[in-house]
Amino acid sequence: MTLVQAATRAAFPFTALVGQPLLQRALLLVAIDPRIGGVLVSGPRGTAKSTAARALAALLPHTPVAAPFVTLPLACSLEQLVGTLNVEAVLAEGQLRLAPGLVARAHNGVLYVDEVNLLPDALVDALLDVAASGVNTVERDGISQQHAARFALVGTMNPEEGELRPQLLDRFGLSVALGNPLDPQQRLDILRTRLAFDEDPQALVAAHAAQLAPLAATVVAARAALPSLAWPDAVLQHAAALAVAAGVDGMRADLVMLRAARALAALEGRNAVTSQDVDAVAELALAHRRTLEPSANDRTNDKPNGNANNSGNDSSNNNTGARKDPPPASTPIPEGDWGALPPIPTPTTRVLSTGAWPAKKA
User: Fold this and answer.
1) Least confident of 120-124, 180-184, 243-247, 299-303
2) For the segment 100-147, what is each residue's pLDDT rounded down to a tens digit?
3) Eight-class DSSP state of 177
4) From CA 36, how far away is CA 31, in angstroms rounded?
5) Domain chopping of the chain, boundaries
6) Most buried residue, 103, 240, 267, 300, by CB count within 10 Å?
């Protein structure tokens, strides 16, 4: 294969990904509504993280020129990321010129950040701001200029190489934790598909054309349908309840769940967002933000109001662990040092962790 052929080589078909339904769903949701805030994909080496991101770019709607796929290098500077203003051109030519950055190049495509956990915090912060708003603001010497920067953000990381700070982890809209495929048949399917692609990329793309074309059309239709879909009060209440039960900080998890639920409803061609849509995307939005393990009542929905009706010191249904009432006053206190109190059993509570996303410290 020549260098030219390698540069123009077809992307791996999105529908040919094997054993990654959750990742595919998360990527499609962000493609439909980039304001969700991107997808953070964690997993060991060789689990198709970058392959999936490139496959998404090839799926996106595009003009005769393919949708851009822009990779952010680790050595990138802030000016290279967001761009800069050429103020000197004002003096020389009487007009302000924008030197666009990577976020401008990624407009209407995919911005891929490999090893995002190794980027400087300032870069990650600026990147996530643009991804969530869809607008990039470039400032220099008191002059500012804005431009559209609507792209699907995909960040990948290997947890063995370090974690993101909790503040930055929370800024990613959705998260997916991948693992090594352990099923022999699944590994066999992955090997066959990958070897077929390496041998003849165009042939594999052609074999999946019948699936790719309608999926691309569905993404276009879903994007157009978003503004017509509203969130009923029952859906808002359900998202808020799930966020409270997970012990998340702030309101970002609630908003992400609602936007992702709307994108899912649009993807599936429905004209209303339901609580079931919220349930289907909840773990994508909560896995990297959760600090509390769901209680038994939350899992079984025996009490619709959960712990909302608890008052005073009654903590029998509290997620942080039930504390038994002290013994009645008539119970004799064992002798001991003056001022000693009777022991009160206090059970510990296991904090839920998905493995890749360690539970945040409350």
Assistant:
1) 299-303
2) 899 999 999 999 999 999 988 889 889 988 988 899 988 877 778 888
3) E
4) 9
5) 21-180, 227-307
6) 103
Return the structure tokens found at 220: 């276009």
Q: Which structure tokens are listed for 321?
A: 């662990």
pLDDT, residue 317, reads: 40
| 8 Å CB contact between 230 and 237 | no
Instruction: Match 């997916």 to its residue by tokens.
Output: 176
The β-bridge partners of 336 are: none
Distance CA 347, CA 183 (A): 38
3 state DSSP class of 1: coil
Q: Locate 287 and state its tokens.
A: 């896995």
- For 238-295, the DSSP string reads HHHHHHHHHT-SSSHHHHHHHHHHHHHHHHTT-SS--HHHHHHHHHHHHTTT--SPPP
pTM: 0.77
When pLDDT is cut at 50, 70 and 90, the band that residue 315 belongs to is very low
Angle formed at CA 14 by CA 56 and CA 113, multiple of 5 degrees: 35
Cα(253)–Cα(171) distance, rounded to whole angstroms?
A: 9
**CATH number for the domain formed by residue range(s) 21-180:** 3.40.50.300
Q: Which residue numbers are catalytic? A: 252
What's the CA gap between 60 and 148, in Å, rounded? Answer: 17
| Contact call for residues 274 and 264 (beta carbons, < 8 A) | no
Q: Residue 98: enclosing H or E segment and its boundaries?
A: strand 97-99
> CA 263, CA 314: separation in Å to the nearest integer?
40
CA distance 74 to 119: 6
CA 247, 249, 250: angle at the middle one, nearest 5? 125
